[in-house]
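worker-03 picked up job from queue 'complexes'. Input manifest follows; two sequence lines, order preserved.
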Amino acid sequence: MGRWEPDTRERLQNAALELFERGYDNTTAAEIAERAGTAKSTFFRHFADKREVLFAGTSLIADRAVAAIAAAPPAVTTLGLVDEVLRSILPIFDPAKRLWYGRRQAVVAHTPELRERDLLKQHAQTAAITGALRERGLTGLTADLVAALIGLAFHVTYTRWLEATADQDVATLAAEVLAELRTTVTALT
Amino acid sequence: MGRWEPDTRERLQNAALELFERGYDNTTAAEIAERAGTAKSTFFRHFADKREVLFAGTSLIADRAVAAIAAAPPAVTTLGLVDEVLRSILPIFDPAKRLWYGRRQAVVAHTPELRERDLLKQHAQTAAITGALRERGLTGLTADLVAALIGLAFHVTYTRWLEATADQDVATLAAEVLAELRTTVTALT
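worker-03 finished. Artifact:
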């Protein structure tokens, strides 16, 4: 506990990203730890393996989404749940980390092992969200469909935020995506 | 070419499934080949690695879906494309292989490496379908949303078909799912 520093986790993540950018396969957990100025054992106190380093935020997203679904007032419509969930996740979009997330996204996209882990995390998020929607009483295909809409709204908002030229307000972006999604669903029927 | 037998591929798949059911990690490509009564080199002529053995049908699904989207008459509505795609895939649901697919599904669900490959394949299918929808002129979120609906319709139909007690007609199952999906989408708005 003595030598534990509050920013160790973040230092490990930064070191991992920098090393992964040069090549994922030949980077070891020991090298990440060394670059972060800490011990290998510290690395494994924070992360199960080198794949996990870039996925620390994914369970936070599912936790917030599940909490937002449970806390939504009874009057909220089924489609309104998509808005509630997306809005609950927005605080995670930290403007100070936007460029870092963009670099992280690029490394994940180019590294098959990280892409697999990413899809597994997304799948777990969708399962958690579908479960929370069923808890709320959504039955049959409705829970699956709303979970898919939530995934889509999040994915598009996140992608647009990463691609924005300046530090565009994510709440504005999210509102645009939600309005677009609503129009799109309505146009289908 | 001389010793090539038409059913070698299927024998390899059957052998792999049987061995994977006893344990995926300690099964080698050589053992699969031996059990199928063929050479290790033959295994690698058919599959890139042992993970691939159970995913031979996945590109067929994407190919059929993409072809169905391109071939759909101009009068077909956006939501009607979901019907066109699902119907085009139904011939792949071979009643004679239903129990085999059920066993395959169970092995994939219980083996992290196979689940990851499965998600990667699904992701590639969705990307191919979204691309075909954009080719057809669907813009913005509509292509993503319709691709998600196609994925959902396929997934639910396939799951219900595997869980059916007898050899239930898959066309009837698919029609029920499509009607349910249409009702669900309409109820959202």
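worker-03 released lock.
Chain A touches chain B at residues 78-79, 115-117, 119-120, 123, 140-142, 144-146, 148-149, 151-152, 156, 177, 180-181, 184-189 (CB under 8 Å).
Residues 112-135 of chain A form the longest helix (24 residues).
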